[in-house]
Design a protein that fits this description.
Radius of gyration: 19 Å
Number of helices: 5
Strand content: under 5%
Number of strands: 0
Structural class: mainly alpha
Shape: elongated
Order of helices and strands: HHHHH
Helix content: over 70%
């Protein structure tokens, strides 16, 4: 097994784990949170935002920022292969639909929630904050869910193409 194949396997695994994380969040966590009151929602979301900031998450989430461009580089040749374009598409979708959405959308919202003093809010303020936060955050997360699933699928296709070419 060569270096390129190992990187493709690692990137596909990491991509699948990230896609699974977003998928699980979309189909179970957000529907579950929707069922609880505003104060509990805000406190639970703060706790989950803190919990996800851990080394295991960072390794896979940010590891793809390295692995995907590396795969593009390793597959760059003349003439450009179908595998190169598949990996490039997976990379662009990951960078735009996951990284950019997270960095410029979800993270600023999470940071705003993190400094929220829930104990000093009245029920009307909690409800207003939650309505604005929840709807926007969930839309952004749906973009990440779809993007991660597509990126993962493309890497599977690249692997299948890789096996055909080798």
């Amino acid at each position: 097994m060569n270096f390129e194949t190992i990187i493709l396997i690692l990137a596909t695994l990491a991509s699948g784990l990230i896609a699974g994380l977003f998928y699980a969040w979309t189909i179970s966590v957000t529907p579950g949170l929707k069922r609880i009151g505003d104060e509990h929602y805000l406190r639970a979301f703060q706790a989950m935002n803190r919990a996800i900031l851990n080394p295991v998450f960072f390794i896979f989430f940010f590891g793809l920022v390295i692995l995907l461009p590396l795969l593009c580089y390793l597959n760059f040749s003349s003439p450009l292969s179908g595998r190169f374009w598949i990996i490039t598409a997976a990379t662009i979708i990951y960078m735009a639909g996951i990284m950019a959405v997270t960095i410029f959308g979800n993270v600023p919202m999470n940071n705003t929630l993190e400094v929220l003093h829930i104990e000093s809010m009245n029920s009307r303020d909690m409800s207003l904050f939650r309505d604005n936060f929840e709807n926007t955050w969930n839309r952004l997360n749906m973009i990440r869910t779809i993007s991660s699933a597509i990126s993962f699928l493309l890497l599977i296709l690249a692997f299948l193409q890789h096996n055909v070419d080798n």
